[in-house]
Amino acid sequence: MAQQTLVGAINQALDQMLESDPDVILLGEDVGLNGGVFRVTDGLQAKHGKDRVVDTPLDESGIMGTSIGLAIAGMKAVPEIQFDGFLGPAYDQLVNHAARMRTRTRGAVTVPMTVRVPVGGGIHAPELHSDSPEAIYSHSPGVKVVMPVTPYDAKGLLISAIKDPDPVMFFEPKRVYRSFKEEVPEEMYEIPIGEAKVVNEGDDLTVVTWGAPVFQCLQAMDNLPEDVSIELIDLRSIYPFDMDTIAQSVQKTGRCVIVHEAPLTCGMGAEIAARIMEECFLYLQAPVQRVAGFDTIMPYYKLELEYLPEAPRIQKGIEECLAY
Amino acid sequence: MPHHTVFEAKIEHLQILDENGKLDKKLAKDTLSDDQVVHLYEQMRICRELDEIAFKLQRSGRMGTYPQNKGQEANAVGSALAMVKGNDWIVPSYRENAALFMHGLPMHYVIQYWMGDERGSQFPEELNMTPLSVPIGTHMLHATGIAWAMKNRKEADRAVITYFGDGATSEGDFHNAMNFASVMQVPTIFYCQNNSWAISVPREQQMNSRTVAQKALAYDMPTIQVDGNDIFAVYKATMDARKRAIEGGGPSFIEGVTYRLGDHTTADDARRYRDQAEVDAWLDKDPLIRTRKYMEDQGFWDDKKQSELETRAQRIVKEVVDAAISVTAPDKADFFNDMYAELPEDLKLQRDTMRTSSIGRNPSQVGLKAQPTEAR
Questions:
Q1: What is the mean pLDDT of residues A94-114?
Q2: Chains A and B: how many Cβ contacts under 8 Å?
Q3: Is A48 a catalytic residue?
Q4: Catalytic pick among A48, A97, A124, A129
Q5: Residue contact B118–A142, C-beta within 8 A
Q6: CB < 8 Å to B376, chain A
């Protein structure tokens, strides 16, 4: 098994899907010859041809809308939207068409596509290049949303997403693109959408997170006293999400901290907290604590670490929840 | 030569059958046979009948909002005949019912749909068409994507036609679709039914362009303006566009100049914003009147045939309405079941309990008192 970065694992999954399924088509801005601005699709056009890895016009709505058409005609479109903040122009096509097509035709017309988008902050990027839009799309019935953060999970979830018969938003935490390596099997494998992963088992408090903050949470946990036992859950799938794993854990620990980069209000933390209230009410020993992005515009990069849930803020959240 | 012209263009207008039913024989050569003219006339007349009955159904409270096609039928039938049924795709808006019917959609689907039932968009599997599209201007991108798939799969004898109105050409997605289709050189036919009105906004206020057809020039796309109430011109322009498409010539644009004789929908009252004199002038250009006049002049149509057709249209539409009305009521589980190929467990629970409330999710906890567990 080779060590892979997140970029490498996603590239390998795309390569293998292109190889194994002639209906798979990649499209997006600069994804072909240039291999994408993050080089996630590097080498794929040279290997699979210009008809299958397509440099499109600079038009997010066009990318999303033509992907819908490709999918209706039976292809498996894998569009890339270059940055999180550029999803705006594609929102209408995604939410009003891709998400609705199956139900409004009662299953007669379907849209199997996987929308890849680099998301999140922490890389000193320009404005509108650091957002975390997962809650917006989880609030849009008809799409699925995943955000794997490790290379292993990314490969398995991407293969599942492309094979899924419904539209899937595949969010890639760009801060982790090259910062973490792990062994990734060469062969193809799938990780089911909707299953969380227990990264660390513990008894005293549950931390639920996803995306890049998984690593900030690990850092915060390292700074806690040794006798504190934290259970860390990487949600991986944002919709549908694995409430069973969360509920089991919180019923065991009685305390929960939810960490995400997206703004606090109406973030996925709110939904998860509500569900914990429903399913773990009699077990809770402290209010559910949320450590999230603020309800502000994501600041430009000189202040981005003040906005993001970094390790010290997460640590404080955990300590308060433990002391309640 | 530092200052010179790098691009020149013109827009041609095609009319073959004028409003008096007079045919330009030279231009009509190799277009419609007499049988085809009769066929298209019948389709238009049946569609008109459906329109009138749908209007009455809405007014009597038996159907929701409905957009009449009245006055624009020639665009639908002429172009649909040029496309190959069961082979090509149709990506419609909502004012070309006859095109869908000619390509095999049972008519009651459309009525069932406007009666508020999504099963009216659950088209039979063998039909190559997307459902009616209520949002304006967004579906042409889907037509472009479908055509792109054809090109990718080297299905060289297939093409896609998509319909939209003049108002839709103000939307960004119209231009996105035109650009994508042009760049990718895919077999899409963009058919604009320029009916002069986008609800209450007239075409002159919708755009400062003298024609809609000229918008295609920006994309180097072959483009033409036709008399959209002339089945010959519509048919010929679509045949030409389709031929170009399947020969690898890429997308084409057709502007059919027509007129919305009815209100925007049954929820609209066009008297609020347009003069009756304008409507009256267009009543004379009605495609049904001129086609009938032509057929009668040529001697292959008469009052007897007309009367038979009207009786037949009434019978067909009555059957269609009966079929739409007699379908079983939809099940409430229906609006859950096709959200995803496989429903997430949470959604199954919502469907099965028809509740979203907290306690309903865990009924076993009802009646239990909160007993704080021992602090760790």
A1: 97
A2: 158
A3: no
A4: A129
A5: no
A6: 203-204, 254, 285
Q: Based on the fold, state whether residues A25 and A89 are members of the same structural domain.
A: yes
Confidence at B319, pLDDT banded by 50, 70, 90: very high
Between residues B358 and B78, the one the model is more confident about: B78
Yes or no: say if A184 and A10 are a contact pair by the CB < 8 Å rule: no
Q: Inter-chain contact A194–B148, Cβ cutoff 8 Å?
A: no
Is B260 one of the catalytic residues?
Answer: yes
- Among candidate residues B264, B290, B292, B294, the one labeled active-site is B264
Residues A10 and A148 in one domain: yes
Q: Note whether A20 and A50 are same-domain residues.
A: yes
- How far from each other are the two terminal CA atoms of chain A, in whole angstroms? 45
Whether A229 has its CB under 8 Å from any CB of chain B: the answer is no
- Domain membership of residue A192 (yes or no) is no
**pTM, to two decimals:** 0.95
Which residue of A51, A62, A254 is in closest CB contact with B152? Answer: A51
Q: Are A117 and A80 in contact (CB under 8 A)?
A: yes
Distance CA B363, CA B365 (A): 5
- Compute the 3-state secondary structure of chain B and give helix, strand, coil in percent, each to the nearest 5: 50, 10, 45
How many domains does the structure of chain A reveal?
A: 2
Residue B129 half-sphere exposure toward CB, CA atoms < 13 A: 34
Q: What are phi and psi of B125, to 5 degrees?
A: -55, -35
A17 and A98 inside one domain = yes
Question: Do A100 and A8 lie in a common domain?
Answer: yes
Exposure string of A304-320, with b = 16+ CB inside 10 Å and e = fewer, is: beebbbbbebbbebbbe
Angle B71-B76-B81 (CA atoms, 0-180°, nearest 5)?
Answer: 140
Find the mean pLDDT for residues B96-107.
98
Range of the domain at A144: 2-184
Omega before A192 cis (within 30°)?
Answer: no
B368: left (phi over 0), alpha (psi -120 to 50) or beta: beta
Same domain as A178, residue A310? no
The CATH superfamily holding the domain B13-325 is Thiamin diphosphate (ThDP)-binding fold, Pyr/PP domains (3.40.50.970)
- Closest partner residue to B152 (CB to CB) among A25, A109, A278 is A25
Interface-testing mutation among B90, B152, B182, with chain A (most A C-beta atoms within 10 A): B152
CATH number of the domain that residue A119 is part of: 3.40.50.970
Q: What is the DSSP string of B9-68?
A: ----EE-SB-TTS-B-HHHHTTS--HHHHHHHHHHHHHHHHHHHHHHHHHHTTSS-----
Tell me, yes or no, whether A190 lies in a domain: no
Chain A segment 186-215 residues within 8 A of B by beta carbon are 194, 203-204
* Chain B residues close to A24, C-beta within 8 Å: none
Is A174 in the same domain as A202? Answer: no
Shortest CA distance from A251: residue in chain B = B373
Rounded to the nearest angstrom, the minimum Cα separation between A113 and chain B is 12
pLDDT tens readout for residues A220-273: 999 999 999 999 999 999 999 999 999 999 999 999 999 999 999 999 999 999
Q: Show me where the domains of chain B are located.
A: 13-325
pLDDT for the residue numbered B376 = 40
